[in-house]
Design goal:
380 residues; Jelly Rolls; 12 helices; 32% helix; oxidoreductase; IPNS-like_sf; Fe2OG dioxygenase domain-containing protein; iron
C-alpha cells in the first residue's frame, strides 16, 4: 500500500469529531502536540487529496509584491504624496498587497512585539490555558487554535492569540491582557492607528476622494483587532497548511512577520512568496474596502504554507470599521455612476463579521457574492 492510500484509508476510518474534541478540550493547541514529540501530524490536520492536487503552483522567484517607501512622505510635499498614492492604487489593482518601509513605526517596537508574542505562546501551559476559549463574540482577549476548527475540512497548523476591540469601542481593558505581553500590546496600538490612517488617506487621494473619506469610515469607533499567529515547525508540511487561502474581512490589514516567511499571495493564478523585509510591514486590502470602493480596490487571496522550519510569528492588525452599530455602508457615491453602477447592496460591518465567523476560512472568499445586488435580484 502506497503512502497516499494509507492516508486515505486512515482518514476514512478515524473518529474526526472525537479527535477534534480531544484536541480542543486539551487547550494546548498545536504547540501541545509538538511538545508531546509527535512525528506525524494527526488526521484532523491532513488536507483532502483533491485540495492538495488542485493547488496552484508557486511563481518564479523574480516576482514580488511592490515595496513602497514612505521616507519622503510629508504634508508639505504634495507631489510626493500624490506619487505614493498612485503607487498604492497600482499595487492594489495588480497585487492587493504591498510592503511599506520607512513607515515611522520604530523597528525596536516591531522586534519587541514579535518577541513578547512569542513569549506568550511559549510560556507555562497552565498560564496560557486561562485564555483558551471558543467564545469569540463576547471575549476581548483569548487564545485558541483554528477559529473554524469544527467547520473546516482540515485544521491548520497554527495557534492564535487574539485581542478583539471590535465591539468595545476600540478600547481594551489592560487588566485582561496577559502580563507577559501587556505593555508592548498597549504600546503597539497607537502607531498602528497612525500608520493605518496615513494609508487610508493615501488610498482616498489615489481614488480622487476627499483625503479623510476612508479614514473617517474606517475609524468610526476605532474598531480594530490583533491576531498573533504562531506557526510551529511541522513534521509533514506537505499534508497541511499554516493558514488556508482567504481574503481578510477588514478595510486594511497591517502585518508584521518575522524572518522565516511562509506568506503567499495569489497572483495571476500562482502563489507568490512574500519575502520578509527587515523593518518592513505588509499591507493588504480586505473585502470591506473592496465593497465600499465598488471593486476599484480588490482584496487579495493569500495563505500561509506549513514549513519544517519554525516557529514563525506574525502579528496582523485589522482595521474593521464600525462594529456592533447601526451604521450602514455601501459603495461610495463618488465611485459610482450610470456607467459604473453599484455592485453591492448596503451592509453593516457587523453583518460581515458575523458571516465570517459562521463559515470555515476557506469559504470566506464566497462572502462577497452574498452582498452583491445581482445575488438578491436587485441589479441587472
Amino acid at each position: 500500500m502506497d503512502t497516499q492510500n494509507a492516508i486515505n484509508e486512515t482518514q476514512s476510518s478515524y473518529d474526526r469529531i472525537g479527535e477534534l474534541k480531544a484536541f480542543d478540550e486539551g487547550k494546548l493547541g498545536v504547540k501541545g502536540l509538538v511538545d508531546a514529540g509527535i512525528k506525524k501530524i494527526p488526521n484532523m490536520f491532513i488536507r483532502p487529496l483533491e485540495d492538495r492536487l488542485k493547488d496552484f503552483g508557486t511563481s518564479s522567484k523574480n516576482k514580488s509584491v511592490p515595496i513602497i517607501d514612505f521616507a519622503s512622505l510629508s504634508d508639505e510635499n504634495n507631489d510626493r504624496t500624490a506619487e505614493i498614492a498612485k503607487e498604492i492604487i497600482v499595487a492594489s489593482k495588480e497585487w492587493g498587497f504591498f510592503q511599506v518601509i520607512n513607515h515611522g513605526v520604530p523597528e525596536e517596537l516591531l522586534e519587541k512585539m514579535i518577541d513578547r508574542c512569542r513569549m506568550f505562546h511559549e510560556q507555562d501551559a497552565e498560564m496560557k490555558k486561562k485564555f483558551y476559549t471558543r467564545d469569540f463574540q463576547s471575549k476581548s482577549v483569548y487564545f485558541f487554535s483554528n477559529h473554524d476548527l469544527y467547520k473546516s475540512k482540515a485544521a491548520c497548523w497554527r495557534d492564535t492569540f487574539y485581542v478583539n476591540a471590535r465591539h468595545t469601542g476600540g478600547e481594551v481593558d489592560p487588566k485582561e491582557l496577559p502580563p507577559i505581553c501587556k505593555d508592548v500590546i498597549l504600546e503597539y496600538i497607537n502607531p498602528m492607528h497612525k500608520l493605518g490612517d496615513r494609508i487610508l488617506m493615501l488610498i482616498s487621494i489615489g481614488l480622487g476622494l476627499e483625503s479623510e473619506c476612508l479614514g473617517n469610515m474606517a475609524k468610526g469607533t476605532k474598531s480594530w483587532s490583533i491576531a498573533n499567529n504562531y506557526y510551529l515547525a511541522c513534521p509533514e508540511p506537505e499534508l497541511t497548511m499554516g493558514t488556508d487561502a482567504h481574503v481578510d474581512t477588514s478595510f486594511i490589514t497591517i502585518l508584521l512577520q518575522d524572518s522565516i516567511g511562509g506568506l503567499q499571495v495569489l497572483h495571476e493564478n500562482k502563489w507568490v512568496d512574500i519575502e520578509p523585509v527587515t523593518g518592513g510591514l505588509i499591507i493588504n486590502f480586505g473585502n470591506i474596502l473592496q465593497m465600499i470602493t465598488n471593486d476599484m480596490i480588490k482584496g487579495a487571496c493569500h495563505r500561509v504554507i506549513a514549513k519544517s522550519a519554525g516557529p514563525r510569528l506574525s502579528v496582523a492588525f485589522f482595521f474593521s470599521g464600525v462594529f456592533s452599530s447601526e451604521k450602514i455602508h455601501g459603495p461610495i457615491k463618488e465611485l459610482t455612476s450610470e456607467d459604473n453602477p453599484s455592485i453591492y447592496r448596503k451592509f453593516s460591518t457587523e453583518e460581515i463579521i458575523k458571516s465570517f465567523f459562521s463559515k470555515s476560512l476557506e469559504e470566506v472568499g464566497d462572502n462577497l457574492d452574498y452582498f452583491k445586488l445581482k445575488y438578491h435580484g436587485d441589479g441587472n
